[in-house]
Design brief:
The protein has 587 residues and is of the alpha+beta class. The chain is 25% helix and 38% strand.
Length: 587
């Protein structure tokens, strides 16, 4: 009896220890509007597809930062994983931090909502000898904007400068939260060297360094928010202690600084004078249509190039399409971008190159093509028209309609005469015979239905045995679950074509779960360097590896880039092809 009690206690304790927990913890439930709040979402089992709450009425000034603790003590495994956020309240009142969700072994877990009370600002002691107070007064992160009132799709530049007071040093810094620029197309400009310069901040002499430069193209009109950049900085400040030579010892403190939110007002493009074919081009451009051949033979190929060059939002609009005579066979254009992004915006050339093959002799006109853009200097729309081209085909077959096509460039119509005897091959006469039925008793079907269940017993036993074996295969079950999740999210991506955020979120999760199932990759190891190393060790082809990495990069950049349904469909087809290629190479 005593042995049974001990065994039962052991089983109960094992069951309780195996339970999954997913909780939200806050540093304080009441704070002043000038204070910060830390929220930790902690789980005791590794999970996937973590979704934080919206943090309405709070600004995320830090995070998410991830920490994992995995240890063995006396043969017992202890695991914990946390996602941490630092929040700043937007106003006073009582607010609810909503539920976070996580998927663990195919099940979805949620945290409990947490009530937070935000009061008026709390007076903080201003001790001039306190290193934290001194650091807060000596270090400032500022976001400078080149234009606070731009037009839609007009480039603006954000320069982040770190100001440091005299007799104060900065040992190092680390970015803990980057702006997301959700309403902008964005491009970071590399800062090749950190140069210390002299300047002023609020009328006082400071030193400063430029940490980051970002070019933004607003994609919406109205009031838009540029989110802050947050840094974790190690600051050195002089103390009252001195060495034998009279020099002050330096005190070191860690300080989190953030640039404040910046608001810009984006003007819509004027409706007055807007051309009918305007596709959103803003800047100063040149436009032309060129051909690499003027004379050729039938069935030879020529290239027609439609190009726009200059300065403006070159990557954010579509080039006009060519409309050619029907006797010319035209292939899908090859799109090429040679664009550099500088602090002043995009500069370069974009082009569509059409491969055209004539079928018959003749003289084929290439109609004029128009391109419209909004000129920021004159604040007016401009329309550029290409020169008319003539393509002469001297040798080859002659079409009966070539004269009409060569002069008018129109599409000939083929009149199809209906065939009145198109159904003559079908039989219209009947030859019906009565159906005679045999007695059911002692028939083959009778004995099959009678003995069939007994014959199925060995098959049923085989299926049950396989299911039991499969149920005990923990690793295999986990792989199959992640495979199902990959198919689920890939299907969700296909259904979300045209909805950018939902599509790329589902596509990224599909790629995530596919790699977990194929390489038994843990969530904490999901980064590009680890993926390249593992797939390289599996002898995956370079083309397939680059395709997979480019898909991950596309998912990361999707929120900053305006994409069409065609682009999403191309990425979906590319994902399906890459997964099929990996299936063949990893098996």
């Amino acid at each position: 009896m005593k042995r049974n009690i001990i065994l039962l206690t052991f089983l109960i304790s094992g069951f309780l220890s195996a339970q999954v927990s997913f909780n939200a913890k806050v540093s304080k439930k009441q704070l002043g509007i000038n204070e910060r709040l830390r929220v930790d979402f902690t789980m005791n089992t590794d999970g996937d597809n973590f979704e934080p709450p919206s943090f309405e009425n709070f600004t995320v000034v830090g995070g998410p930062s991830q920490s994992i603790n995995n240890s063995w003590i006396n043969g017992t495994r202890s695991f914990s994983k946390s996602y941490s956020y630092f929040l700043a309240p937007k106003k006073r009142g009582e607010f609810i931090i909503g539920q976070a969700t996580i998927e663990i072994e195919g099940e979805t877990y949620k945290t409990l909502p947490t009530k937070i009370t935000v009061t008026a600002a709390i007076d903080k002691p201003k001790d001039p000898n306190d290193p934290d107070y001194i650091a807060s007064e000596k270090i400032h992160l500022v976001a400078e904007i080149s234009n606070a009132n731009p037009y839609l799709n007009e480039a603006i530049t954000v320069v982040y400068k770190l100001y440091v007071a005299q007799n104060t040093g900065v040992r190092n810094w680390r970015e803990i939260d980057n702006p997301r620029y959700s309403d902008f197309w964005s491009q970071n400009i590399d800062v090749k060297a950190i140069d210390i310069k002299q300047g002023t901040y609020k009328g006082e002499d400071y030193r400063y360094v430029v940490l980051r430069k970002t070019v933004l193209y607003p994609q919406k009109t109205g009031k838009l928010i540029i989110e802050p950049l947050s840094l974790d900085i190690t600051v050195e400040i002089p103390s009252k202690r001195r060495d034998v030579f009279g020099r002050s010892f330096m005190s070191t403190v860690n300080r989190t600084v953030a640039s404040r939110n910046r608001t810009i007002s984006v003007k819509p493009l004027p409706e007055t004078g807007k051309p009918e074919g305007f596709s959103g081009a803003v800047g100063n451009f040149n436009f032309k249509v060129t051909s690499n051949k003027q004379t050729l033979k039938a069935t030879e190929a020529l290239e027609l190039k439609v190009s726009v060059s200059g300065k403006g939002n070159l990557k954010l609009f579509r080039l006009p399409k060519l409309v050619l005579p029907s006797a010319l066979e035209v292939y899908e254009p090859e799109h090429l971008e040679r664009v550099n992004t500088r602090t002043s915006g995009m500069q370069g050339t974009i082009s569509d190159t059409y491969t055209v093959v004539p079928s018959f002799q003749g003289s084929y006109p290439i109609p004029n093509v128009s391109f419209s853009y909004f000129d920021l200097k004159t604040k007016r729309y401009k329309t550029l028209t290409s020169e008319r081209l003539i393509i002469d085909v001297n040798e080859g077959p002659v079409s009966a309609n070539s004269a009409n096509n060569s002069t008018s460039g129109g599409v000939t119509e083929n009149v199809i005469s209906p065939n009145l005897n198109q159904f003559s091959s079908f039989k219209t006469s009947t030859n019906l015979k009565p159906i005679t039925s045999d007695p059911f008793f002692n028939s083959n079907i009778f004995w099959l239905l009678l003995l069939g269940p007994f014959l199925l017993i060995p098959f049923i036993m085989f299926v049950v045995k396989n299911r039991m074996t499969r149920a005990l295969d923990v690793t295999g079950n986990k792989i199959r679950k992640t495979n199902r999740l990959a198919r689920k999210y890939l299907s969700a991506a296909r259904k979300s074509l045209g909805q950018k955020e939902q599509f790329y979120d589902a596509l990224e999760r599909a790629l995530h779960n596919y790699l977990k199932s194929k390489l038994r990759l843990e969530t904490s190891e999901f980064n590009k360097e680890k993926i390249e190393e593992l797939l390289g060790n599996k002898n995956v082809s370079k083309e397939t590896l680059e395709g997979f990495i480019s898909l991950l990069t596309a998912c990361e950049l999707a929120r900053y880039t305006p994409l069409s349904a065609v682009d999403m469909k191309n990425d979906y087809e590319k994902a399906a092809n890459v997964i099929n290629a990996l299936d063949k190479q990893l098996n």
